[in-house]
């Protein structure tokens, strides 16, 4: 199951559920809706089409695909979620002229702060404690992510390896996924970074891991589809002010998980950390 405070029939959940089956135009519209879901409550269908760069027909067709009888019904649904106080529905698209006049540094800072706030607003203590317990108690922790996600894999492994004895980033150069997945057990834990534009390996990996019964933490961005195999799914806000996605929230989440794991590892973790520090001195590594 996935742990989320968003109901199965919410507007955002409906959009995310369609991401893998959309045409190019519908995907542009879906990306805009996921980045600025609250905009739907304020604009007519034609205005939304212009903002997303699609036709009016595309908007109408997509709204029906989401299961709404009309655009007005979808707007009412979004308005209810916006009134609930969800920070996801408070983001609005600023005009290009105003943003062009702002300093680049200030613009990036504002976007980073917004992404952090919107990402951490969805987290709750019970979910995070469940994740940490699974990681600490797992005989093996495997971490996967390719392309832009590979750096997060390396960082999270490096931090957790200080207090956990078996944390593996996979696959390393010259290795295959099968070599790591063989013998995967229900007690093990898999962390998968699914930030968009991943390789095709991710689907097969999740299927194999799910069949093994191990717990799966799936970390993605708000534009990526949900994965039914995940035990926990966390969507990081990665909207960028320019051509690049902003990954500040992903790194912050890695830091949060690693910090909580260090605390959760308790006496055994502190003993391992002390041994590592003594070996640093013996080997004169640092």
From TrEMBL:
<dbReference type="Pfam" id="PF01418">
    <property type="entry name" value="HTH_6"/>
</dbReference>
<dbReference type="Pfam" id="PF01380">
    <property type="entry name" value="SIS"/>
</dbReference>
<dbReference type="InterPro" id="IPR009057">
    <property type="entry name" value="Homeodomain-like_sf"/>
</dbReference>
<dbReference type="InterPro" id="IPR047640">
    <property type="entry name" value="RpiR-like"/>
</dbReference>
<keyword id="KW-0324">Glycolysis</keyword>
<feature type="domain" description="HTH rpiR-type">
    <location>
        <begin position="9"/>
        <end position="85"/>
    </location>
</feature>
<keyword id="KW-0805">Transcription regulation</keyword>
<dbReference type="InterPro" id="IPR000281">
    <property type="entry name" value="HTH_RpiR"/>
</dbReference>
<dbReference type="InterPro" id="IPR036388">
    <property type="entry name" value="WH-like_DNA-bd_sf"/>
</dbReference>
<dbReference type="InterPro" id="IPR001347">
    <property type="entry name" value="SIS_dom"/>
</dbReference>
<dbReference type="InterPro" id="IPR035472">
    <property type="entry name" value="RpiR-like_SIS"/>
</dbReference>
<keyword id="KW-0804">Transcription</keyword>
<keyword id="KW-0238">DNA-binding</keyword>
<protein>
    <submittedName>
        <fullName>MurR/RpiR family transcriptional regulator</fullName>
    </submittedName>
</protein>
<dbReference type="InterPro" id="IPR046348">
    <property type="entry name" value="SIS_dom_sf"/>
</dbReference>
């Amino acid at each position: 199951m996935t742990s989320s405070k968003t109901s199965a029939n919410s507007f955002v959940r409906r959009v995310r559920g369609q991401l893998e089956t959309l045409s190019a135009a519908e995907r542009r519209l879906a990306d805009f809706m996921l980045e600025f879901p609250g905009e739907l409550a304020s604009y007519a269908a034609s205005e939304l089409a212009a903002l997303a760069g699609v036709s009016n027909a595309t908007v109408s067709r997509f709204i029906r695909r989401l299961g709404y009888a009309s655009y007005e019904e979808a707007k009412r649904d979004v308005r209810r979620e916006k009134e609930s106080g969800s920070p996801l529905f408070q983001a609005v698209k600023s005009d290009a002229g105003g943003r062009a006049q702002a300093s680049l540094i200030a613009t990036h800072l504002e976007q980073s702060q917004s992404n952090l706030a919107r990402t951490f607003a969805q987290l709750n203590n019970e979910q995070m404690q469940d994740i940490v317990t699974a990681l600490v108690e797992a005989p093996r922790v495997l971490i996967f992510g390719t392309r832009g996600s590979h750096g997060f894999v390396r960082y999270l492994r490096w931090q957790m390896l200080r207090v956990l004895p078996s944390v593996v980033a996979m696959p390393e150069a010259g290795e295959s996924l099968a070599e790591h997945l063989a013998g995967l057990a229900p007690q093990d834990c898999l962390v998968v970074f699914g930030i968009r534009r991943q390789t095709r390996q991710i689907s097969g990996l999740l299927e194999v891991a799910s069949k093994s019964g191990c717990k799966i933490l799936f970390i993605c961005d708000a534009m990526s589809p949900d994965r039914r195999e995940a035990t926990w799914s966390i969507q990081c806000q990665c909207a960028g002010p320019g051509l690049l996605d902003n990954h500040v929230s992903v790194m912050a989440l890695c830091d949060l998980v690693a910090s909580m794991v260090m605390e959760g590892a308790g006496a055994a973790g502190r003993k391992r950390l002390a041994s590592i520090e003594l070996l640093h001195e013996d080997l004169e590594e640092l």
